[in-house]
């Protein structure tokens, strides 16, 4: 499933294509949304933003189109009238005077008045967006050590969109590696410095992934100074690297399943907390 950084980059791409543009034609696959096609045609796109893993397209007609990519959703942008060969199912199509923007495969799509965004079941439940500027280290720390979350194991907590939205499976493994923590630990078991470090890693690793197009490796980190020239081709420190050597200590990376999802870790770099 695309995580917060991927959805934010998709929003950035769509924003460059759509913002300020007039929608001359719109298509929805769902019969429930067909009535909105005529209502929304002729609207101008004001903004394309994200909340967690949701993408919000705001129109000057007073409506917002909510979409969630789920596991396989994908946004594309092409010149108008370009013939597309695709084995995915078309869900949304926005046409401007020059571009056709399409959402494929995803089915979680709703059109609702912009004033009612906060009432959407997903949006009203999720926690602060990890990539939002207002989501500071302190805000993350306060939530981490709060009564609601402090006794939850990191395996589940870092996937819980109520805690901090936009986190997901690869970010979970990478955040815990950089924080030198294990998935079974809880904030209530750590000291203040450890929880502070984890709070910083939650923000920094997510932001780094967004800026580096899905890569969490921090090339300027002191512990990576010994990496060879192939380092720039590497994406993750531990995720999807089971059986391969840790870049830092050469220990074999381990893969397990926790909270029904695969998780990866280094038994040496994260060993003091096993």
Short description:
The protein has 274 residues and is an alpha+beta fold. It has helices at residues 4-18, 35-40, 137-144, 154-157, 169-179, 192-211; strands at 25-28, 45-51, 54-59, 63-68, 74-79, 90-95, 99-104, 108-113, 253-258, 261-266.
What is the H-and-E element order? HEHEEEEEEEHHHHEE
C-alpha termini separation: 28 Å
Largest sheet: 4 strands, antiparallel
Query: Which CATH top level class of the largest domain fits?
Result: Mainly Alpha
How many independent structural domains? 2
What strand order characterises the main sheet? Answer: 1-6-7-5
Q: How would the global form be characterised?
A: elongated
Q: What share of the residues does DSSP label as strand, in percent?
A: 15-25%
Compute the number of helices: 6
How much helix, percentage-wise, in residues?
A: 10-25%
> By helix and strand content, what is the structural category?
alpha+beta
Task: Classify the fold: give the CATH topology of the largest domain.
Answer: Helicase, Ruva Protein, domain 3
Compute the average pLDDT.
Answer: 92
